[in-house]
Every structure is written in C-alpha cells, then in structure tokens.
C-alpha cells in the first residue's frame, strides 16, 4: 500500500536541489498508494568524510540526511525547504554520483507521525536506511531478538527491525571476517548483508537499502510487493539485457541514471526502459553497473557469490500525459470521462466483424486454453472490492454461454476458509493492479491445488500476470484515482469477451453472441451519451449531500451495479451506503425504509425489470424516497405518478447494461465527494493498491 522510490545518478553531475525534486516528484506520482506520511534520504556533503560515530565506528562517508514528515507529500516539501534554510543546507552543491531514497506511507503499524515515517534507520549515524512497501509478519520475534542484543527502537513500525537487523548482520559478518584474518570491512558485499536480512524476514515486502558503508551503492529486493527498475543512459542508447559481472562493462564510466519505484507512474517521465523485478531477486547498483541475483532460501547460509541472472529490458506502453489530470480537476473525474476511450482500447483487436458477417472474439492470451476452460468442472472468480463486483456482474453471461457453473470468491475469505479447489477447476483472478495481496495468496493456493489459473489485470508484468497460466490484460490505461472507475468497466468488457469466446463452439447461442458483439462495437458511443448526464448527477448530488445513508437495490446483472455504486459512494464521499439484492428486500432491509431515506433502484430493461417494478411499488407504499434508474423511454411506466426522481440511460444487451448503468452512479459518487468537501482522489484511510493483508 506504500510507495517507494529511489534515484541514483552515476557520473551524471546533478545539484542537490535537482535530486531532491526528482525524489519529491517520484513521491507525488506514488502518493495514491499512501498519503499518511512521507520521507526522503540524501547524501550529506562529501567534504565531511570520513566520519567517526560516538560508538567509535568509522564511516567512509558521512551519515545520510533524513527528512520525514506526517501528512501529504507537500507537507514534507514545505518542511524540507524550511529546514534547509535553518540549517544552511547547500542545495547548489553538485554530486557526480549520489543515492537518494524516498517513501510515501499508508500506515499499518503505528499512527502517522515523523517517527513512524520512512526511511527507517538502524540508529546513530543512519548506518543502514530502508524504505519498505509491505508487511513483515515476524517483526515482533525479530524485535525481541534485537532488543536482547542491545538495540533500541523508536518507532511502532514493523519496518524498523529491517535496518537494525542489517546493522546486526553487518557487524556479525565483519566479526567473522576479522576472526578469519579479514581486514577491510567493505570486503563484506552489500548484497550479502541484504540477503542475510532477507533470510530472516517473513511476509511481503519490497525494500530499498542505503548505507554510508557503501557510498553510491543501492540494493533493492522484493518478495510479493511490486518493484520496477528504470534505466536512463547518456545519449539514450539502449542496452537490451543486464547480467551480473559484465553488465554494461563496455560502458563503464558512462553517465547513467537509475530509478526504482513501486509503480511505473513514477518512472515514465524519466525513461520508458524498465525492468520488472521478480520475487526473490536482489538488485545491486554500483559504479554504473547493475547486478541481479536470485536469492535462494534453501541454499547454504552466507553464500559469498550467489547465482546471477540475466534479464531483458522492456518498454513502458504509457505516456506521461496519462498520469496528468489534463483539463480535469481530479483524476477520478478524468478517468470516468475516459471510459469511452478505455473501452475502445480494451476491445481493440479482440472483436471480429469479418467478411460475410462473421463475428467473433480473439483473446490471444487464452486461445490455447479455451478448450480446457470449457471442460472445467466449474469456473471460480476470485477478487476483492471493485474487481469482485466486475466478475459478479459478468457471472450470468459466463454461465449462459459456457454452460459451466460459476462460483464467486472474495480472495481473503477463500484463504481463511481454505475452500476446496480441484484440478478440474478454472480459477480466474481479477485485479486492477495485479498485485493485490489477498488475491495473490489465493493464486498461490489455487496453483498448489492444481487448478488452471487465469489472470485479468490492468498491469503488464504484474505478479498476477506472471503467476497465472494465461490471462488477458484489460488495457484500460493508467488509473490513479483510488476509487476504480474505468478499470471496472473494462474488466466487465473483458469477462464478457471471455464468455463470447467460451461459447464460440455453440450454434444455438450464435444469434445471442452476435447481438452482444454488435452492441460491444456501439458501447463506447453509448457510454459517451450517458456521460452527458454529468450535470444531472451533480444536481442529484446536491440533493443528497447532507444525507447520512443511501440504499441501492439491484438484481440480476445489476446486483453488482448496486454493490459497486454503494462501494463508490462510501469510499470517496464517506457516506454510509449499502448495495442490496432486491430479492432480499423483504428479508430485513424493508424495515429501514421511510420518507427520509434515499433509495436508488436500478430497473433497466432485462429479465428482472418486471420484478424491479414490483420493488418500486412496494417501496413507494412505504413512502420511500426513490431514485429510479431505467431505460430511456421507460420513466412513465416505472414511475407513473411522477413522484420518483428518474435517471434514464441508453439500452444495450442485458450483459452489457452494467457498464452503462454504473457510469452515472460513478458521477454521482464523484460529485457527492466534491460537494461534501472531501479529497476525491485520496479518500480517508484508503490507498490504491492493496499490497498488504
């Protein structure tokens, strides 16, 4: 849930002010991942080297500078420049080589405060500094051990054990070297220290280490949390692979800049050449050379030369404009209005309207596995939050066209129950980021049980994309607003295309499939039409902004729409809202209905619309304050006495209707949030990518 960032310039002279701004901008791009507190670490003036600590330890370079602050990134920026003025910190000083690290936090252990912010330190002299995204599950055991060895802890975080453990490992390894006749402490490689630390850690993490014992060196590692390396060279000449030892040796001394980040958003403005760090890989940057090692837990301890790996660079398929607001006030607003384009990108090249009116779907990532999925004993959709709702919205069409039973699982609940999964099952994992911690754990569980695992994500190279047997990228484009909007509609579109592909061998459903495909081609223009309701939704939001609660009733395809509407309203506008299956209304929820409680009923034309008419009449009989969403032209039949507020939307095939229906409700949630005075892009207590459990 946190965001980590690092910038290393080698033989590329940069002023401290420039380095600081690179770090701050990196954090701004990652702030959607957490915004409780933040911090950075910089190199001190090199003229102060070497430096002796009060403990007697001699540092080859002076202790790094650390700046931490509670609150948003701009709080850190303000206090940094204030402190720089007070301490006469030289911002014009130039560094030929420099290592800076940065962190933006979503609190898990300890409340937001400067002390609990990262970078976390080993103690006096900042001998080891760490920024961390993830959770260390055995931190209490490690803390007790370190306390017995004389370490003192200042923060409440799980992260603080990591730099202190690094200091303990460093001292222990050097004692061993000294007893064996070693002389120079730097004969202990930085990577060896980090790997010994990794050996003791349990949980999920992406870590970046900095130490004055290893000036101008940076070590990063990951297990479960995302991490990317960006590469920028003078002249921008490309080098295709990195391998330990001779990596870029031919260009040794050539100016280079490296960027490490939790997300490509923080890298794309500097370079599009990236490397996705794999689990249990250790990346070491020194003297302009990148070395990548594979950490093996089961190997003998203190392996002095671990196995190196060769990796290929890839090119980011995104533009800087995608991570900017453009003419919109907020990212959520921008992403809602981008949905005609994002849906076009999702379906581009996948829908076939060939000669002689032949229609079909081509999903390249699944074509070799469709037969296996059709023969599955059942299909299991696994996700969390909005991704779960997207799968739920598409479940009926999967069952209809494939004939395979479909079950829904919330990832965390599946793991808690250890629900049965069999070799004959197909497990489909839906996640916008591809890094959702609970969904990743469910993926490991499903793979261990032999199921075919399919991934549906928005992030190329993500953990779910790499860990599944096959999958589909939704190609919705970068989504920065914490509340997912365009990813939701693109996920539904992809799952519907999956249903079309699964039913492609059935003659009996051909006419139905062709009708759906025709409407898929028209879907972006229909979404563009429904976006014209923006002002109407703002007016409705003005009527609802003082309310404390909202109910949303849906059924059939639109039960998921009700859940998603309620989720959007509660997560950004901080208004209590609940999505309810309309068929369950009389089993409890009807008791809440009175003339003051606003209720949205989704009653667009489908197989359940007549039942929804009955629901509307029952709610009106209890003096319910109704807002009815219906198909264009149905307002009179749904609410003949004109007492309901009506939202009319275009009609498409029933399985595609949830894509149309959710758009005005997203706009409603957006306007409610703005009118209530809350931060729509950074809602309270939430972050974009849930990479902790």
TrEMBL record:
Pathway: Nucleotide-sugar biosynthesis; UDP-N-acetyl-alpha-D-glucosamine biosynthesis; alpha-D-glucosamine 6-phosphate from D-fructose 6-phosphate: step 1/1. CDD domains: GFAT, SIS_GlmS_GlmD_1, SIS_GlmS_GlmD_2. It comes from Adiantum capillus-veneris. It catalyses: D-fructose 6-phosphate + L-glutamine = D-glucosamine 6-phosphate + L-glutamate. Pfam families: GATase_6, SIS. One of its GO terms (molecular function) is carbohydrate derivative binding. This is glutamine--fructose-6-phosphate transaminase (isomerizing). GO terms for biological process: fructose 6-phosphate metabolic process; protein N-linked glycosylation; UDP-N-acetylglucosamine metabolic process. Residues 2-288 form the Glutamine amidotransferase type-2 domain. The keyword Repeat applies. It is an enzyme of class 2 (transferase). Keywords: Aminotransferase, Glutamine amidotransferase, Repeat, Transferase. The keyword Repeat applies.
């Amino acid at each position: 849930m946190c965001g980590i960032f690092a910038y290393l310039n080698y033989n590329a002279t940069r002023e401290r002010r420039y380095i600081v701004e690179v770090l701050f901008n990196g954090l701004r791009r990652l702030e959607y991942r957490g915004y409780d507190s933040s911090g950075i670490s910089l190199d001190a003036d090199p003229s102060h080297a070497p430096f002796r600590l009060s403990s007697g330890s001699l540092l080859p370079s002076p202790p790094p500078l650390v700046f931490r602050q509670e609150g948003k990134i701009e709080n850190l920026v303000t206090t940094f420049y204030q402190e720089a003025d007070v301490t006469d910190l030289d911002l014009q000083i130039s560094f030929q080589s420099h290592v800076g690290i940065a962190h933006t936090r979503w609190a898990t252990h300890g409340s937001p405060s400067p002390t609990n912010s990262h970078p976390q330190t080993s103690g006096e002299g900042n001998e080891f500094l760490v920024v961390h995204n993830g959770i260390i599950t055995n931190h209490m055991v490690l803390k007790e051990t370190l306390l017995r060895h004389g370490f003192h802890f200042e923060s409440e975080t799980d992260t603080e054990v990591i730099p202190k453990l690094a200091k303990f490992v460093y001292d222990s390894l050097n004692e061993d070297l000294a007893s064996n006749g070693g002389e120079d402490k730097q004969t202990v490689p930085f990577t060896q220290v980090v790997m010994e630390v990794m050996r003791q850690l349990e949980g999920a993490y992406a870590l970046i280490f900095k130490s004055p014992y290893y000036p101008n060196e940076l070590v990063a590692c990951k297990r479960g949390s995302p991490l990317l390396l960006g590469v920028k060279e003078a002249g921008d000449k490309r080098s295709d692979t990195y391998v330990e030892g001779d990596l870029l040796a031919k260009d040794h001394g050539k100016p280079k800049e490296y960027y490490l980040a939790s997300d490509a958003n923080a890298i794309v403005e500097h370079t599009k050449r990236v490397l996705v760090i794999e689990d249990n890989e250790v990346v070491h940057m020194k003297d302009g050379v990148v070395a990548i090692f594979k950490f093996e837990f089961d190997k003998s301890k203190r392996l002095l030369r671990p196995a190196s790996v060769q990796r290929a660079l890839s090119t980011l398929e995104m533009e800087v404009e995608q991570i900017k607001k453009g003419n919109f006030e907020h990212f959520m607003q921008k992403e809602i209005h981008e949905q005609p384009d994002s849906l076009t990108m999702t379906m581009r090249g996948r829908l076939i309207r060939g000669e002689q009116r032949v229609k079909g779907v081509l999903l390249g990532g699944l074509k070799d596995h469709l037969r296996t999925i059709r023969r599955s004993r059942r299909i299991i959709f696994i996700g969390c939050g909005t991704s779960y709702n997207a799968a739920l919205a598409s479940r009926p069409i999967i069952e209809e066209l494939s004939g395979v039973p479909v079950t829904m699982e919330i990832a965390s609940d599946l793991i808690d129950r250890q629900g049965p999964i069999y070799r004959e099952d197909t497990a489909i994992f839906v996640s916008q980021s591809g890094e959702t911690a609970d969904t990743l754990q469910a993926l490991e569980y499903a793979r261990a049980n032999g199921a075919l695992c399919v991934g549906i994500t928005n992030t190329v190279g993500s953990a779910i994309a790499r860990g599944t047997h096959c999958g589909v990228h939704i190609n919705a484009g970068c989504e920065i607003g914490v509340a997912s909007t365009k990813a939701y509609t693109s996920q539904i579109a992809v799952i519907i295309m999956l249903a079309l592909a699964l039913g492609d061998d059935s003659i009996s459903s051909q006419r139905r499939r062709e009708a759906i495909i025709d409407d898929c081609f028209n879907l972006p223009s229909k979404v563009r039409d429904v976006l014209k309701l923006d002002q109407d939704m703002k007016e409705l939001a003005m009527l609802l902004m003082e309310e404390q609660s909202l109910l949303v009733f849906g059924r059939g395809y639109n039960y998921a729409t009700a859940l998603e509407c309620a989720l959007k309203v509660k997560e950004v506008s901080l208004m209590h809202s609940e999505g309810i299956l309309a068929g369950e209304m009389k089993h409890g929820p009807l008791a809440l209905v009175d003339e003051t409680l606003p209720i949205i009923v989704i009653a667009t034309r489908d197989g359940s619309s007549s039942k929804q008419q009955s629901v509307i009449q029952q709610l009106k009989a209890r003096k319910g304050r109704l807002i009815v969403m219906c198909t264009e032209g149905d307002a009179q039949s749904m609410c003949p006495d004109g007492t309901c507020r009506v939202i009319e939307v275009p009609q498409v095939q029933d399985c595609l209707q949830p894509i149309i229906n959710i758009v005005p409700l997203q706009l409603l949630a957006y306007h409610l949030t703005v009118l209530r005075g809350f931060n729509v892009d950074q809602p309270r207590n939430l972050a974009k990518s849930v990479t902790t459990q």
